[in-house]
Amino acid sequence: MTAAPARQLVQFGAGELTDRLSEALQVYVSAMGYPPSTARQRRALWLDHMRRPGWRAVGWIGAGGDLQGIAYGYAGAPGQWWFEEVRRGLQASGGDQAGWLTDYFELTELHVRPDTQGRGLGEGLLRALLAGTNRSTVLLSTPEYRDNRPGRAWQLYRRTGFRDVLRDHRFTGDSRPFAVLGRTLPLDPPVAR
Which of 13, 147, 166, 190, CA to CA, is 20 to 30 A from 44? Predict the structure, then answer.
């Protein structure tokens, strides 16, 4: 008799993620430490993202069928809000727009439930999501960590070769500073730990 796996990494189609969207948004809210009402505000945005070219999503499903982690992204392009915000930041800082904002995959969301963090789920999501894209680079934004010790997300991104593209960027409508990180694709093979 074999035991069921503790969790399984799966690829989601838009319909499958839509069916589990409330659960996915709860993973997002708990991982980010946001108030529960944030899930309602983000629902329409996540649904809109599912219609973008190159959209893909992966998730971890626990042995009991619960969603433990979620990641998705799509092909970045001019006219998209995030693209325009990053272009504005790069213009202001004198950064390399042409190099980064051409042919990139936007890693839009990557979240692991806090009670399952520290077990390699984030890296599994990252690798599975990016393995299926045909873009030459990947970009993401993550809150700056300031004087605190870098959190798990920062450690993951640094360990997998992401470098600074833009630091202390303020997205329109959000007073918090963010870092935009990027790297070429494909990812390097995992390093044994």
Answer: 166
Among the listed residues 28, 72, 74, 157, the single catalytic one is: 157
Looking at the DSSP bridge assignments, the partners of residue 193 are none
Cis peptide bond upstream of 186, omega within 30: yes
For the stretch 59-70, pLDDT in tens is: 999 999 999 999
Structure tokens at 112: 């692991």
* pLDDT tier at 98, thresholds 50, 70, 90: confident
Six token digits for residue 50 = 């599912």
157 flagged as catalytic? yes
Helix axes of 152-159 and 121-131: crossing angle, nearest 10 degrees: 50
Is residue 50 predicted with pLDDT exceeding 70? yes
Cβ-based neighbour number of residue 118 at 10 Å: 10
**Among candidate residues 101, 185, 188, the one with its CA nearest the CA of residue 137:** 185
